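Before a colleague's protein record goes any further, I have to sign it off. Would you go through it and say whether the fold makes sense for this chain? Take the sequence as given and treat only the tokens as open to question. The record follows directly below this note.
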Amino acid sequence: MKTNKRHLIQTILLFTFLAVSLFALGLLAMGAVKRGLFEPPPIDNIYGVWEEQEVPGYMADAFEIREDGIYVGGSIVTTRYNFNGVTLTYHVGQQLYLYTYSSQKLIRDKPAHYRSVFVRK
């Protein structure tokens, strides 16, 4: 009797999984769900001037990301940076800068004096 009940539960779970999968595929086929929903943002989404938030304006950091490098105060500080769609990294001298891209914001993880949030100007 236990095996019949277990077999019934497994069968129900299998058919539920198949129904949900077919429903999801149907949504994709109809275009109701975008195919690129889970893809990282393209690199050109980070180009621009980024300003620090939640600090007084006179203390706010700002930097610009261009195709050819990272700029601070109008001067280039590095030509080498890496953005993989989630994290931005670069070095200025020996100092590593590490940012996490989330919800159209860059959050500075290193150097971490305090939690720095940057938004594009």
Observations:
- The two ends are 67 Å apart (CA to CA).
